[in-house]
Amino acid sequence: MVEKQKFLVYRKNPGETPRYERYTVPLKPGMSVLEALFYIQDHLDSSFAFRYACRGAICGSCGITIDKFPQLACRTQVTAVKSTKKPLKLPELTFGEVPNDWNQETEILIEPLPNMEPIKDLVVEMEPFWKFYEEVKPYFVREYIDVQPESLQSFEDARSIEHLVYCILCGICWTCPVNATNSNYLGPTALAKAYRFMADTRVDDSHRSVIAGRVSKEDGVPACEKHFVCNRVCPKGVKPGTAIQNTRKEYLTP
Amino acid sequence: MSVKEFDVLIVGGGLSGLRAGLELSKKWKVALVSKVVPIRSHSGAAQGGINAALGNHPEGKEDTPEKHAFDTIKGSDYLADQDVVMFMTKEAPKIVVEFESMGAPFSRFENGKIAQRPFGGAGSPRTCYAADRTGHALLHTLYEQCIRQGVDFYDEFFLIDLISVYNTVTGALTLDLTTGELVTFRTPYVILATGGFGRIFTASTNAIICTGDGVGAAFRVGVPMQDCEFIQFHPTCLYGSGILMSEGARGEGGLLFNNKKERFMLKIAPEAKELAPRDIIARAITTEINEGRGFEDAYVHLDLTHLGAERIKERLPGIRDIAIDFAGVDSIEKPIPVHAGHHYSMGGIGTKFDGDYCETSLDGLWAVGENAAVSVHGANRLGGNSLLETAVFGRYIGRKMLERGLPSRPSLDKIIAAEKATLDNIEGLFKRWESNSGKKAVEIREAMGETLSRNVFVFRKESELQQAVNDMKNFQKDFENVSLTNISSPAARKFNYGLVRTLELRNMIDIAEVTAFASLWRKESRGAHYRTDYPTRKDEDYLVHSMVIRNNSGDLEMHTKPVKLGIFEPKPREY
Ligand SMILES: Cc1cc2nc3c(=O)[nH]c(=O)nc-3n(C[C@H](O)[C@H](O)[C@H](O)COP(=O)(O)OP(=O)(O)OC[C@H]3O[C@@H](n4cnc5c(N)ncnc54)[C@H](O)[C@@H]3O)c2cc1C
Ligand code: SF4
Ligand code: FES
C-alpha cells in the first residue's frame, strides 16, 4: 500500500479571508514538500497557487512556512518535516485561524512566508522586498571593460565574500520580528546584499559610501534589534545578521 | 484589450535575455518579460563554469580562441556552424573580462587572476568559475547591472503566442500572472530567450520552468525547429531527484566506479578518462547499469572522498550541499549515487542560413541562448560553452539590432487585425479547455515524459523511435481534449499556475513530437544522438541540420540546412 501524508493548507483568494483545506498526498520515495504541492495542484485543485522554478534550492522561489517554520519547499523532504529540529527561538507566526483540530503529530501545516502580504494561496506580495533590494544600490558602478587583463582580486578577498554572494533572495529571512512590526525596515536581505558590496574589495570607495549612507539611515541597520532569527532560518548560510553587525561595526560607529 | 508598445520585446530574463536587454536599453525602449523574476531563471543553476581561452591556468598558458573553436567543433561531431563557433570563442575572453568588470565574483588563483579548471572535451583548462555556482554568480551580476541601468521588466508575464503579419513578427500575446489579464506587446523586434526544454523528459537536470515556450511559440508561426534530435544526457545526475552533479566534480578529480569497484572509464576513454565528453560518459554509465554493474540497477558511484574535506569545501561546496539535502550523502565521506539524465537541448528555434547569427526565418524575430540553435553546439555541447553562448550572442544581438535600426512594419490595421485574431484564438482555446471532458494535463505530461525517457534516450533504435512517434500523435489528440476548470476570467487566471502548466504543455508536446520525429529520421550516430542500429557517423547523408516544420495538413515535414564548414575538416571524433 502506498503511504500517504495529510496536509493542512492555507488557501486564500485575492481579497477574501483565508481558509485552511485538507489534502491527502500519496508519497513517493524522497518526495519534497514542493512535489507534494504539485500533486495537489495537478490532481486535486489546479488553481492552487505557489511559486517555484528550479526545484534544487538555488532560485529562491519556493519559500513557504511548513509547520510554523519558514523554509524552501523544494529542499524539505516530506518525511523529515516532523522529525527535523526547528531553529531555536523562532517568532510566533500567524497567518489565519488554523483549525483547532490540526493534528500536529500527523498533519503537515502549509502556510505562506511571514511578514509579506498574501495575495493568492501561498503567493505573497514581494514588491516591498524588491524595492528595498534596489534601494541599497546593489551593483558595481565601474565602466565595463572587455580587454584582458581583468582586474585582480586576491584569493582570500574573493573567498571572504562567497557566503554573502550566494544569497538566493528567497525572503525567508524576513521572518525577522522587526519585519513584522516595521514595514519601512529595509530587512535582512537588502542589508546583507549591501554588505556583500561594501565588503567586496573591488568596489570603489565612493560607491561604498553611497551604500553605507543608505543603510545607516533609521530604517536600515539601526532598526535591527539583533534577534539573529535571519541567521538561523537562512537556507544558504548567508548570515545576514552577522553582515548587519559587521556593517554596524565598520561603518556606523563614529 | 491592453496593448503596450515598445521598440523591442525580449522574452526571457535568463543570461541571454538580460544581456540583450542591457545592450538594447541603452538606446531603445525595451520591454523584458519573464515568467519568473529574472534571478529565478534557470541560468542561476549552472554550476561548473564558462569557457574562455584566458590562459590563466598554469597548464593552459598557450590556449587560444582557435584551440577553443577546434575543441568545440570536434565536440559537436562537426555539426556546429564553424564561423559562428569561431566568432564565439574569439568573443569569449572579452565576455568573461566584461562580466568581471560588472562585478561577477569569480573564484581566483593565488595571483589574483580569474581561476580556471579543466572540463570535458577541452584540450586546455579554460573553464572560468565562481566555485560551483557560476550561473548564480553571473545571473545576479547581470541582473544587478540591468537594475542599475533601469531596464523595464515585466516580471511574472507569460508568453503565450507570437503575433505576425505575413512573414513579419509584430509582437506577442502574454498573460500577466499578477492580474490575470491578457496583454499584447506591439513591437517590430522580438527576441526569444526562453531557455531549454528539458521538462519534456521525466528525468532532467532542468528547472521545472524549462518548458521551451519560445520554441513552441515560434514553431506555431512557422519557424522550423532545428536539430531537436540532439539532446545532451548528463552522465552525473543525482539519483532520486535528477539534480546535476557538475562536471566540475570530475574536473576537480572525482572518479567513477561501478559495483565491482572498477574505474570503467579507463577502458572506454584511456586518455580523457573521467573527462571524456558527456555523451561518451553517459553511454558508459548507462551500459554499466544495463549490464548489471550498477548499484540497485540504477546508479554508479561518483567518488570525491579522496579529494579531502578541504578541497571539497573550497571548490565544490554547492555539490556537497545538494547531495546532503537531496540524497542524504556527504561527499566528504561517501561516494555520490549518479546516473545519466537529460541535461541540455542542442536544438531549438531554427536560425537562417544566410542571415545574421540568431536571426530566424520570420522577419524581426531573433532567438538566443538555449532556446536557439545558432548552432555552436552541433550534435553535442561542451560543458561551459552555453553560459558563454548566452552572453556572447545576447550582446551580439543587441549591437546588431542597434546597427541595423528599427525595421519597417506592416500597416497598423493589419497589425491590429493580427493581434485580435491571436487574442480571439486564445480566448477560444481557454473556453474549449473549460468545456472539454478529456484528460488532465498531468496525465498527458507524465505519459509523454515516460515515452521519451524510454524510447528516445541515450541508446536509440528504429522500433523504439517509431513507437515514440506514434505515441506522440496520440498525446497530441489527448491534448486537444485536455480539460481545465475556471480559467476564463482574469480573476480566475491571477497566479493560476495550473493554467501556466497547461500552456507549457502545449509547447512541450510539439517539441517532444519533433524530437521523436527527427531522431527517427537521422539514421546515423553523431554526438549525442546514438543509434544502436546505425552506429556510425554518415557525413555523406547527414552532415546537415534537421529543420522540421508542420505543414498545412498538420503533419511534420523534414527539411535540411547545410552546415557551415571550411575551417576544420571533419574527422572521426576520438578521445
Ligand atoms: C543544472 C545545470 C547546470 C548547468 N551548468 C552549466 C555550466 O556549468 N556551464 C555552462 O556553460 N552551461 C551550463 N548549463 C547550461 C546553461 O545554464 C543554460 O544553457 C543557460 O543558462 C541558458 O540560459 P538562457 O538565458 O538561454 O535561458 P534561462 O536561464 O533558462 O532563462 C529562460 C528565461 O525565459 C523565461 N521564460 C521562459 N518561458 C517563458 C514564457 N513563456 N514567458 C515569459 N518568460 C519565459 C524564464 O522566465 C527565464 O527568465 C547548465 C544547465 C543546467 C540545467
Ligand atoms: S539571506 Fe538567506 S534567507 Fe535571506 S534572502 Fe538570502 S538566502 Fe534567503
Ligand atoms: S524551487 Fe528554486 S529554491 Fe525551491
Briefly characterize the structure:
Chain A is of the alpha+beta class and 254 residues long. Chain A is built from 9 helices and 7 strands. Chain A has a 5-stranded mixed sheet, with helices on one face. In chain A, strands 6-7 form a two-stranded antiparallel ribbon.
Q: What would you say this structure looks like, in words?
A:
The complex is a heterodimer of chains A (254) and B (575). In chain A, 31% of the residues lie in helices and 13% in strands. By secondary structure, chain A is an alpha+beta fold. In chain A, the strands form two sheets. Chain A has a five-stranded mixed beta sheet, with helices on one face. A two-stranded antiparallel ribbon of chain A has the order 6-7. In chain A, a hairpin with a 2-residue loop joins strand 3 (63-66) and strand 4 (69-72). The N and C termini of chain A lie far apart (67 Å). Chain B is an alpha/beta fold and 575 residues long. Helices cover 37% and strands 17% of the residues of chain B. Chain B is built from 17 helices and 21 strands. At the A-B interface, helix 1 and helix 3 of A face helix 3, helix 4, helix 10 and helix 16 of B. Bound molecules: flavin-adenine dinucleotide (FAD), iron/sulfur cluster and FE2/S2 (inorganic) cluster. Iron/sulfur cluster (SF4) binds at residues 167-173, 188-189, 192, 234, 236, 238, 240 of chain A.
Features:
heterodimer; A: alpha+beta; Ubiquitin-like (UB roll); Fumarate Reductase Iron-sulfur Protein, Chain B, domain 2; 5-stranded mixed beta sheet; two-stranded antiparallel ribbon; 9 helices; about 30% helix; about 15% strand; elongated; B: about 575 residues; FAD/NAD(P)-binding domain; Methane Monooxygenase Hydroxylase, Chain G, domain 1; 5-stranded parallel beta sheet; globular; binds iron/sulfur cluster; binds FE2/S2 (inorganic) cluster
Topology:
The complex is a heterodimer of chains A (254) and B (575).
Chain A: E1 4-11, E2 19-26, H1 33-44, E3 63-66, E4 69-72, E5 107-111, E6 118-120, E7 123-124, H2 127-135, H3 155-160, H4 162-165, H5 177-181, H6 187-198, H7 205-216, H8 229-233, H9 240-252
Helix pairs in contact in A: 2-6, 6-7, 6-9
Chain B: E1 2-5, E2 8-11, H1 15-24, E3 30-34, E4 50-51, H2 65-75, H3 82-101, E5 116-117, E6 127-128, H4 134-149, E7 152-155, E8 157-165, E9 168-176, E10 182-186, E11 189-192, H5 213-220, E12 225-226, E13 231-238, H6 248-251, E14 255-257, H7 265-268, H8 278-290, E15 300-303, H9 309-315, H10 317-327, E16 336-345, E17 348-350, E18 365-367, E19 372-373, H11 385-404, H12 412-435, H13 441-455, H14 462-480, H15 490-493, H16 497-521, H17 539-542, E20 544-550, E21 556-562
Parallel strand pairs in B: 1-10, 2-3, 2-11, 3-7, 11-18, 17-19
Antiparallel strand pairs in B: 4-6, 5-6, 8-9, 9-10, 12-17, 12-20, 13-16, 14-15, 15-16, 20-21
The complex binds flavin-adenine dinucleotide, iron/sulfur cluster (SF4) and FE2/S2 (inorganic) cluster.
Residues 52-55, 57-62, 72, 74 of chain A line the site of FE2/S2 (inorganic) cluster.
